[in-house]
Prior knowledge:
alpha+beta; 2 domains; D-Amino Acid Oxidase, Chain A, domain 2; FAD/NAD(P)-binding domain; eight-stranded mixed sheet; 8 helices
Amino acid sequence: xxxxxxxxxxxxxxxxxxxxxxxxxxxxxxxxxxxxxxxxxxxxxxxxxxxxxxxxxxxxxxxxxxxxxxxxxxxxxxxxxxxxxxxxxxxxxxxxxxxxxxxxxxxxxxxxxxxxxxxxxxxxxxxxxxxxxxxxxxxxxxxxxxxxxxxxxxxxxxxxxxxxxxxxxxxxxxxxxxxxxxxxxxxxxxxxxxxxxxxxxxxxxxxxxxxxxxxxxxxxxxxxxxxxxxxxxxxxxxxxxxxxxxxxxxxxxxxxxxxxxxxxxxxxxxxxxxxxxxxxxxxxxxxxxxxxxxxxxxxxxxxxxxxxxxxxxxxxxxxxxxxxxxxxxxxxxxxxxxxxxxxxxxxxxxxxxxxxxxxxxxxxxxxxxxxxxxxxxxxxxxxxxxxx
Length: 388
């Protein structure tokens, strides 16, 4: 008899969600984290992540709608607000590298209300934006913030309450198929057996998948979030300013004041250099700093006050920037999720989907586009497209 119905490897945002949803289904669950709970070495820490219904394809928009429902379930169980609606603004030049028309079409296809805004309307609503007439935007009122660290902690807390066993400082050193369709896992000097395995190891996914002779063309990059003490703080107060994404190349995004009093969070999306997650540093990337500072000087000068802090994180990027949410073809009792550097907003939902795949063999959610054996993931040197 296996020790557990499911073992989850990695207890960041997605893995912690998977333990919650599996335990909510009544499964006997073991969650394994190689570092301490809440560590800052991976992808899921810091105060905030953007959540939005604005996405470039209907498949993502439909998943985003389901994500809000999944977060609401966790909020009810945990008795804690984790999603904060601020409104979300996608903004950029009309001839920018990320056209807004596709986002508008995808939202229309999914009956998501939004507004087209020209530069004058954007400046009137949020005077902090110093933009020229060639800039336009999409505003969607449900966009906002997921309180990232709090959300991960809530998933873990509720997992334990539902009977899951969570272990920190337990790095996985071996995974191998066992008899009867089970999986054996060695971690932290202990051996475990489960009917199902869920891999949500983020930047360490490649290492775990190698135990199962699976290789994917993933690239891990070191990113950084920057907190500025805004010169014109009132314009960036929570409740007065939206989350926003600058839709061009390079792409930037930011938040109203949230999590750190008097400080505004701004960063570049996918602007970091490739690193090894085992040896990466936590030092500032001066090129990201320069690009963010130059952008704020041009577009949001009121945000550019003294720099309070820099926080680094990792992205685990697929070449097409789409998720992986699937079972391993050669090991159908192993489910895998890779978030491609934009999944935290979906974390609770992806955790639920992983639980469905593990326990039921399938999910009612449409994740066909995120198959692990899609053509681009079979290429030796695939082209990379990191703009979303």
